[in-house]
Amino acid sequence: MGGPVEELIQTALADGDPDGPTRWDAIAALQERGDLETFTAARRLCAADTATERILGIDILGELGRDRPFADKTLPVLRFLAASETEPRVLYSVLIAFGHLRDPRALPSVIELASHPEATVRYGAAYALPNVVGRPADPAGVAALRRLAADHDDDVADWATLGLALTGGEVHDVRGQVLDP
Q1: I want to staple 99 with a disulfide (CB 3.0 to 4.6 A). Which of 53, 85, 128, 162 is the partner?
Q2: What are the tens digits of pLDDT across the range 121-140?
Q3: What are the start-end ranges of the E strands in the chain?
Q4: Closest Cα partner for 24 from 56, 65, 51?
Q5: Architecture of domain 102-181
Q6: What is the C-alpha separation between 39 and 77, in angstroms, rounded?
Q7: Global pTM?
């Protein structure tokens, strides 16, 4: 799927399914472009009135361009949204984008959202943390993963446990005993 940026954006917005193949085909075509026009359009979407438009902008920015040429310009947009957004679905997309960007500068934002009351947001944080803790892993990031590994939501706990295994952090059971991840 190719075409002008605005046409691809409208195609993505027209698909009512957030996981729909038409939406994601349009997003992939936009991400592949990796140009300033696409970055500018996606950044504008991040400031839109509707959550659907903000999510689309974030989803485009998370993997824009093969070598992430706009990562330095994307990170402040995402960090602003992480600090100011209230819609859990938008925060989830921000966290997934942080994970795709793999930039340790996102770590403070991800740690902050790791304690969000909504499980969807915590799940996004569990996904992002192993990708932004840095190498060697930042102790605060590993501590956040440990807290998420004990989360009452099974999906959050499972993803955080995997993240601990990927970062080399220890996993503890409910009695505090170290488990093999």
Answers
A1: 128
A2: 999 999 999 999 999 999 99
A3: 171-172, 178-179
A4: 56
A5: Alpha Horseshoe (1.25)
A6: 11
A7: 0.91
